[in-house]
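Worked Example 4.2. Read the sequence first, then its structure tokens.
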Amino acid sequence: MRLFLSLSYNGSPFCGWQSQPGGRSIQGELERALSIAFGESIAVVGAGRTDAGVNARNYIAHFDLTADEVKEPSQKIRKLNAILPREIRVFDIFCVSPDAHARFDAVSRTYRYYLHTAKDPFAHLSYLYTFPLDMEAMNRAAARLLGEHDFSSFEKVGSDNGTSLCTVTEARWEALDETHLVFTVTANRFLRNMVRAMVGTLLEIGRGRHDEAWMDEVLAARDRGSAGQSVPGEALFLEEIRYPYPLTTI
């Protein structure tokens, strides 16, 4: 049987979602915990790869069991959370069709990037950026990201994607208070480093180094060197993944 799993994680101590030789990954920790909890070797497929240090509030992964039912799922969740490191928490288990796929079935993903403009001792998962920012200019530039574009300029060099085309349906900045901002972006798919490079580029515009029309030039260049620098990963959160079917807790 195939199951979906919802979880959240603080990515700070991990090399990213994907298992890597010699690195500690969320995928590796989850496979270890699931194999212990269910008493069989389990491989996990995630909804996407998050980079080192990046966080997730509502991540989805799938795995297969040889059994045709899960007995006492709430106890399984408690056991999983007891095994997993404190930075990872499982919320729910969902029974899905045998061909359901956590990555390929996802129709959209939403990321948020958190930023603060004044020193804050409690904002360790936010990026301190003290330059004055024109948020209206950043939002006008962000609006130019909407629609289908080739996002090669925001993609990590050396990535092996078949295509760099993505469709962005939401891209906006909001002020949470006088010193805290958040950038929200939703798309059907994301490239490696894409959101962090977007934010870095938008901050260049917010500082007044470029006007918002520069975003069109960056997109058209299809060259990573044309965009702004990537911002740190610890302030980035994968917030939501949507599927074309409902997920029902078992």
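Now turn to a second chain, presented in exactly the same format:
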Amino acid sequence: MRLIDDAERRARAARRHALAAGHRAGDVLAAVRAMTVLHSTEQATPYLSLFARVDGFERPDLDRALIEDRSVVKQLAMRRTLFAFPRELLPAALGSAAARVARQEHAALVKDLERNEVADDAASWIEAARAAILDRLAEGPELSAKQLREELAELSGRLSMYEHKSYGGLTHVAPRVVTWMGAAGDLVRGRNGSHWRVNRNLWTRMDRWLGAPVDPLDAAAGYERLAAAYLRTFGPVTERDLVWWFGATKTAMRQALSGLGAVQVRLERDRTGWVLPDDTEPEPPVEPWAALLPALDPTSMGWKDRDWYLDPALAPDLFDANGNCGTTVWWDGRIVGAYAVDESGRVETVVAHDPGPAGRAAIETEARRLEKWLDGERVATAYKAALLARNRPDADAG
């Protein structure tokens, strides 16, 4: 097996993730395809991810792709995470990763409905609620879960959740139902009911939004199609990376690798990785580059084994126990720190590993570029890095 060392892996990521100078994506759809998907759990993340990858990107560019062209679609899928998918990957996602999440959501909802005595026959209750929602949205505009609940008697009911936690209490069942229907491909998140930094989902029927029903691939074909895109973006990857990214079983991932005819390569630290069969040629170096990436950006999140781009000693300062990351500062293919936006709107970086004069200058240039683009707007995130909490306790992660 040929060796793909850490330096070559960093060069691959720089080009394929559209982060190095001269390798930026030409538009929103090209950038989303380059990354396979963009994390979208937090409303602002895909905007900031695209700003880092598309020269001249402006907020309406993503809105146009999501709302007018509908070439990019938000879908709950791998690891119960919301992603922005290129539309052509939806059949694969709906048949595999999203279907897995939908089954889990349905089972949990049945259990909670019966435990809270909302319904004796929870499965029938859910199906009646689903039918009512689909009927209501057949011709009408997109609606929020709250609006659906207020209009449809079939969605009445509350669930007592997390009773022994400080954040526990009663919650309406409607958001749980529409989340399950979104994972299953019945519904899709249409227009946002707020601005680009705040998530206010408005739901509509997927077949109506896209003009026709989406026919899911079967699970094996779906995972194989998604794995092909993932390997193209992130390869070489370890089996652990695959299982982490997809939130799937080793069996499903091994079947996908076999179906693709994926090729084994050697990695540093005595590991074995996988690449597509047409992706074995050496990758030349790239010029050093700097980037400021938002919380949950796929370049930060794309691998479980991260020590080729992240000092293991720094990982607890940037990633939480579930593997979710806050904002990151990159220099020449490595994470070297984090960034935040202070009360005046200034982007401030906290660098844990000094990148030297050239790195400091490049990072400063990126900070000022992002600051100008934000124009005083501050982006809050639930994933504030511990590194920032110690060094910039009053700043919002950008």
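Notes for the reader: The radius of gyration is 22 Å. The longest helix spans residues 97-115.
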